Amino acid sequence: MSTQEPVRTGASRTVLHGADIARALTRISHEILESNKGPEGLVILGIPTRGVTLAERIGALVGDVSGQTVPVGSLDVTMYRDDLHRNPTRTPQRTRIPAGGVDGRTVVLVDDVLFSGRSIRAALDALNDIGRPAAVRLAILVDRGHRELPIRPDFVGKNLPSSRDERVNVHLADTDGVEEVTIES
């Protein structure tokens, strides 16, 4: 784990600290269990990079609360993105579907920031190629608005109004050495 501060390019302000992130993930975990009426049939899939870390944390919290292990995996959406022409060198990440697959189960997709909705559309396409879930839910740490597609999260850690030209950054200890959400202008 790196202890280095993340590189910031513009004026930045912290809007969530580590304790805020932990509280939001705990609340999301309880909401997932309540919505699903328990852990049965749940599969939690994170969208790389930080969505995978968040999915693992949510999976552990759901397991702690329910006393049952919930399958957690990752779903790479790189080849399903509609902006590949802008960044053709994007490196695909690993997709890891838990044993038992997704057919007939409730899949909770997890990502760090919801903005235009395009990554989630790509995730739905990728998931469709893997199997046929009974239901798909969306858990997001930060919803910043500005949707370009009719995508709405089921579970939100923080609604964070921002302008289109601002950048919302989620930094997690596992990948960045610090726990915070910042807005850069």
Global structural class: alpha/beta
Uncertain runs are 1-6
Q: Write down the domain tally.
A: 1
Order of helices and strands: EHEHEEHEEEHE
Name the overall outline. Answer: globular
Most strands sheet: 5 strands, parallel
For the biggest β-sheet, the strand order reads 3-2-4-5-6
The gyration radius over C-alpha positions equals: 16 Å
Percent strand equals: 25-35%
Number of strands: 8
Give the N-to-C terminal Cα separation.
Answer: 28 Å
Mean pLDDT: 93
Helix content range = 25-40%
Reading off the top of the CATH hierarchy, the class is best stated as Alpha Beta
Number of helices: 4
CATH architecture: 3-Layer(aba) Sandwich
User: What is the fold named in CATH at topology level?
Assistant: Rossmann fold
